[in-house]
Amino acid sequence: MKQTLSVSLPSQMISWLEASTKSQSLPTQSKAVRCCVNCVALGDIDMITTADDSCYAVYQAVNIELASEQIKWIDSIIARTGESDSIKNTTTTTPTTFSNQSEVIRGVILACMKADEDVVFGVIRCKSKVISCDGAQEAVDLLRKRYGENNVNVKEEIQLGRS
Fold first, then answer.
1. For residue 105, which of 26, 44, 40, 12 has the smallest C-alpha distance?
2. Where are the domains positioned within the chain?
């Protein structure tokens, strides 16, 4: 079940989400964010932890729909950084804490913006078996058309743990 989350995103990230939603034929920007969260949570790319958001001048509130497991993962990142006072990451050497859900989502999206789009959007990540999920079936068909019959990467029965 999906829950709506209001997050504060810089206009550059919103533009990237809009462009990605269109180029990847995704139904909504929320779907693009869910792809990003799963990609980072499963360790396919590293979250970017940056304390300097000053390069983004204009922020806007955006409502996104996330699965409850994704929200739990985001909250676990906040809790963990609060407990340890820092999150270690190979992307930066500066310890960074995340104090709210918007900061975690920004770190996730920034990582996806810098990653190869095939890694972010070209992998089917499904909580169940693809065969039992209509949405995943549609995504597999779309990726087969885009990348070829034997070039679709599928990860089934995923579980978002603590990253």
1. 40
2. 2-115
